[in-house]
Specification:
The structure is a single chain. The chain is of the alpha/beta class. It has 29 helices and 25 strands. The strands form six sheets. Strands 13-14-12-15-16-11-17 form a seven-stranded parallel β-sheet. It has a six-stranded parallel β-sheet with strand order 18-23-22-19-21-20, sandwiched between helices. Helix 10 (263-278) packs across helix 11.
Amino acid sequence: EAGIGFDIPQEVTEAVGTECRIEFYLDRDLYGITCEAVAKYGDFTFQLVPTAKELRGVINPDSRSRASQVKRESFAVQVVRQLCPTWSSIDVARIKEEDEQAILLMLTDGVQILKSVGQVFSTAAFDGMMQPNPPSVKVGLSIDSNLVEISPIADEVPMNEVGALLDSYRRKRRYHRLKNGTFVDLKEADLHELDQVSTDLDLSEKQLDSGIIKIPGYQAFLLDSQVDDEGKSASFVDYVNDVKIVDPKRYEVPERLKTVLRPYQVEGFQWLSTLWDKGFGGILADEMGLGKSVQLLSLIEARKGNGPSLIVCPASLVLNWQEECQKFTPQLSCVAVDGDAAHRAELAKQWAEADLVVTSYDLMRRDEELYSGQQFYACILDEAQAIKNHTTQKYKAVCRVNSRVRFALTGTPVENRLGELWSIFSFLMPGYLPPYKTFCARFEKPIVQDEDANAVRRLNQFTGPFILRRMKSEVLRELPPKTENVRRVELETEQRKLYLAAVVDAREKLRAAKPEDKMTVFAVLMRLREICCDPRLVADNWTGSSAKLDACLELVTEAVAGGHRILLFSQFTSMLELLAKRLDEAGVSHFTLQGSTPKPVRAEQVRRFNQGEADVFLISLRAGGTGLNLTAADIVIHYDPWWNVAAQNQATDRAYRIGQQNPVQVYKLIAQDTIEEKIVELQQAKQSLADTVTGGADGAILSMNPHRTYITAFLTPGLMLKIPLNLPLKRATLLYCGF
């Protein structure tokens, strides 16, 4: 008793023999959480924490009941000491306000631990430290002055803390602490909608905390698919529907074009008109041959008086645009930019008064100074895949054009990689898609390599409203059928030996080449392809035959005898020369068009062929893939496959387009068991990728066959490999060619 330091009444000594009850009292003050622990014996209470005075010695410590009581008291003190890091014998047991981990432990598991020892009593201040309901932040959308207003709508969370809350959610934390010290449980948090919107728009924590975020109006269409209807204001819904549901009465086709435009072209004109009014950009991606140019000219005719519009196109199409303008919209004043630098500078003086200025990509790049001070109402890129590489001067030049609205015309917005679509959109609406590296990580890699259906869906949400794509099979019911045939040709013995010898040589060259030596890789592939076409392309002294040339001449002579007329494409101008010789020997009339053919000669040959003056038109694929109307032909032959399937399709559509009256047969000649078969597989992969973006195959990426991610490579029987398409160039080529 002397050790305790005070006298204990007799009734207390008697009470100690009763049952011991432990109680804990939890509270919160300015400095953190406090915890008191007491032991109760009947009506008497003894404080264990903070003073921790024990009752040892009050009665005989050897008493079994007292030993049990002391054990309970001691255990209660030890539990408090474990849960409350700040402890002393003269101060209350405490968890400091800044010790979040200890507070969180007390709020969750700590209370349950204390309850297992005794009764727990807590104040409202303590109970309020854990929010009872999981947080929910929805997104509200409205429109103000052609800008989308995003307003996070938060329950149980202050508006200026939404950004920090989302950051904890993304880090997969179980709890988040608000500035007032309250903890919120994130296990059942409803933040997915906010997370998706914030990710796609790259919103910062500061923006989210600001309350209202204003972004360009074209982002409305992405948000429309991500936010629940209850979060959209009436103004937002009307704004989106204004583009998604075009009122045909709002935009009337210019009078002289009413009898010219087909119904689907009228729809295209109205779609372009809607984007024009909103200040948005868009890709008119109709299949080749559906008249994209006349739809665009109709738009400019209808908006005549707004100032000059600029069309940038391949050099071979500048005069075509001028002719189309004179044909369909003669009331428009059109300036075709050509000639030397001095002449082009003189023409620039006419731009301000013109309705339409047409130039080429190459001249656009050279004449940047002429365009720097000129304001255009619209800037239109024809064959917009020309800017698919965003690192080129060509791309940078068109992006610097000062215009209110921008459009792109292309039947192939994606030829090889999804990054090409990013380049076009960064011209149309800068900043709409995330930065290039982010785009590749968020879309290109998941779609191409992982076949991620969610990434496909989200990309289509981004781009879908601004791409209009119609297929001939959908809108031209009167167009005759097109049949595609692949004719495999087996190399004859000597040609096969030469090819296999070239394979052995190529293997050694590729293994010796440095990884960055792309020219060696391309040279190896080129040589193999040339041998497939005709050994004379690589061996001047070749006296043998060419299996493919023989097969082609047989096909041509049979077709001509049957009254058909033919477009015959090859990438090799030297091959066109060999074909021309064989046609001369067979008495088959023909014209030849290649890159060096002057524009006037080119136009004259097209006119004469369409009038029936020749049976065969030999055309270099690159020179004749765009800008030609050759519907007099009803057979198309691709002598050799090209890496770019879009270029081949464009070549085919020189014949298969509006105005074609006869069924069209397309023949692709492929040397069997050679690199040409691998090129065909690569074409299939690229076509599937393009269909995914334009919707041409209803999300074809979701049903990809292995060849869409891999190329099955085989050179000789028994050697087969599956090659990922994203391998480095040298390694992929080695595997691809069976090396």
